[in-house]
Amino acid sequence: MVTIDPQQFNETMDYIRRYYKDTPQIGIVLGTGMGKLVEAIEVERVIKYNFIPHFPISTVESHFGNLIFGKIGDKKVVAMQGRFHYYEGYDMFQITYPIRIMKLLGVKALFVSNAAGGINLDKVRKGDLMIIEDHINLLPENPLRGPNLDFFGPRFPDMSQPYDAEFRALAKKIGERMGIPLKEGVYVAVQGPNLETRAEYRFLRIIGADAVGMSTVPEIIVANHMGIRCFAISIITDECDPDNLAPLTVEEVIAVAQEREPDLTRILAQLIKEVSV
Ligand code: HPA
Prior knowledge:
- This protein is an alpha/beta fold.
- The chain has a single domain, classed as Rossmann fold (3-Layer(aba) Sandwich).
- The chain has six helices and nine strands.
- The chain has helices at 7-19, 92-105, 165-178, 198-206, 217-225, 250-274, and strands at residues 26-29, 42-48, 66-72, 75-81, 109-118, 129-137, 182-189, 211-213, 229-239.
- Strands 5-8-7-6-9 form a five-stranded mixed β-barrel.
């Protein structure tokens, strides 16, 4: 049985509040190889995850385990530099704990990026940026499983619009203005860490996915549970064509993510400046 001690939220908050007393309006979670947005932040405070009571200890990306407080334009933001993935071995409560803390800090909107494989190649191709308009959760555990935290949200939260329509429309306008083409599609979350088989890619396409990845959905579910408005965007790093499937390495994924990162960063930074929250 899952048990959660609500006192831990207070202990985490007490620690953070010693170093940052303002109210961030916007939370940011950046995907692997997409840390550049941090450079768009006028940094005011950096707190290492490992010092924050009850934060998961970061493993793989330990050198990037930072909670960053600062400003983008006139928006106060809190950004996670380094996120937690299910395949690393964390449970869903740990993965989404920082999002709970963002809510307690006062965050009203969450902006997330990730690297994803292109499934529907009629719609997305390698190097495309894809606004996530909906998702399919194929992760084996739900972050809301267990006793409901009533002070955060309802037992059975609605999921009819997990990605804010206003944010998506504004992002598309900004993309047009900047001459950066943006696609829009459905993201499916799988547990990884292996990439999918050809049969699995066929399956994912049949069930309605445009892109596949190993993150984002837990954070979005928990944010929706708490009434936080969400925006998420994928860099399509590879093409998952089951009939012509070439072996893929994480280095290739990171290389494409880094190549497209400047455009992604421009979109996200501008979107954060222009949104009203
Ligand atoms: N599958 C799952 N996750 C991914 C992929 C993929 O093909 N590409 C980038 N992240």
